[in-house]
UniProtKB/TrEMBL annotation:
GO molecular function, one term: GTPase activity
Chain intervals with Polar residues compositional bias: 101-111
All copies of domain Obg, residue ranges: 78-280
UniProt cross-references to PANTHER family, sorted A to Z: DEVELOPMENTALLY REGULATED GTP-BINDING PROTEIN-RELATED, GTP-BINDING PROTEIN OBGC2-RELATED
Region (Disordered): 97-136
Keywords, alphabetical: GTP-binding, Nucleotide-binding
GO cellular component assignments: mitochondrion
Keyword GTP-binding: yes
Protein name, per record: GTP-binding protein OBGC2
Stored PROSITE patterns: G_OBG, GTP1_OBG, OBG
Amino acid sequence: MPLRMARVASPSFSVYPTLPTDSKATPSLSPVTFLLPLRYGKKRNQSSLLRWQFIQCRVAKVKDDPSSSSPSLIKEAHKYFDHVFITVRSGDGGHGAVLTMPTTQRNPTKTLSRHEKEAMKKKRSPSYKRDSDGSLILPMGGHGGDVAIYADEGKDSLLELHKKNRYSAKRGGNVDAMGVLTSMLHDGNAAPAMRIPVPIGTVVRRKQGGKLLADLVNPGDEVLVARGGQGGISLLEMPEHRRKTLMSLTTNVMRDENDKVLVLGQPGQEVTLELILRVVADVGLVGLPNAGKSTLLAAITFAKPDIAEYPFTTLMPNLGRLDGDPRLGALKYSSAATLADLPGLIEGAHLGKGLGRNFLRHLRRTRLLVHVVDAAAENPVKDYRTVKEELRMYNPEYLERPHVVILNKIDLTEARDRLPSLIEEIANIGCNEMAPKSVESLEGALETSNGHENQPSPLSTIKKEKEIGEYPRPLAVVGVSCLKHIGINPMLKEIRAALRKCNDYSPSMV
Ligand SMILES: Nc1nc2c(ncn2[C@@H]2O[C@H](COP(=O)(O)OP(=O)(O)OP(=O)(O)O)[C@@H](O)[C@H]2O)c(=O)[nH]1
């Protein structure tokens, strides 16, 4: 801990061993006793004057460095990674200037030759910038910097924006004038736009009113959130008797008191924004903790999620890319997909149990759900129903989506023995019909308009009454062991077939 020495009260003491000082230190904490060599009198070299003495000092603790992330942010990153409020301010416009015309000297030119007279005339009338109608173009203050937010492939969470949540663009440059109009005058420099990178899939809303500004789903998508202030104009000041001549020179000649305000650059805008990340993925992996979702993702993609035998290893969605099946020829690309492995859900997640269910917003853009069920668990059917129930509590529309059930851990005897009966039982939960696409679109539209995605929409409230068995049954139920790589290929075949069906069924879901 960096310390600094507190002052010793008596002026007759001089304290030799000084402790490290730090300008950020604040006086605080309880007194501490130090054994310090003290000198009495002025003669430093006389050892007889040296005395060791116990002195009580106050030590100060260095304030936490504000640039370092707060401990709660590091410890509970899963609560913050997909939601943040930031305030942005665009730059003010630079100021224009009030200029006067240069005074012309009245030299007697009678004695000069014609050549000299022409040269003199050229020198006296500098080439001001002029408009097409011949009027003078006066310099303007630079435009203030805009603030824009763009989708960057290199970003995967909004955590960084919690560390710094205020962004200000630079102001535009002033017209650098000494008060006299010259041909050398330039516009003030426009300030560069400030571009804030966010992960792909970020939704940008105004905090006030919740107005949706943009949904940045493609790499490079950009939205202007605060426009920089307009630069001020310049005015020509002139004495009354010369105004008429000058009026014929430029349309910019204005000497109204009200117009003078335009010389000052316009202020920038300040706006507070809510950024919500909704992962962009085709397939969402859902299930209870420890069901093997991360193991499945690692088995079929190059993703390297954390895998462990304790629940809630996954705190934030992990993404993996499933390549298209080359055996499908032209259909290859319809079977390529991005998979999102979500944190485990438990019963009561909608009441905040476990990690809660806020992360379920990341299923919003998926078109296929893959339920991963631990087939060796005590009651796999109940586990499957529990997850469905939690999905329904969050957004009943999720239960309308096509889904595949993966019964995992069939390398274990207890799972292998009951696999056929489990497959039959789960395959029969639900009905055959698919939800009409129009209902999904309506749901999406309602949620986009009300702006509060965790609040059930009116449509959700109506749908809540439906029983689990009244939603579509799974497209396929497959037994696998993701850990031992048993049954991976048949499982991939079913996932790809389901993806193709989703394409036919609802191509505009993502
Ligand atoms: N025997 C066996 N164990 C498996 C299989 N798949 C996963 N496991 C184990 O189950 C445990 C949990 O696996 P994860 O992949 O972390 O489970 P998860 O569903 O992602 O868990 P959360 O992160 O808590 O949501 C790990 O110890 C895995 O090794 C399997 O096929 N067979």
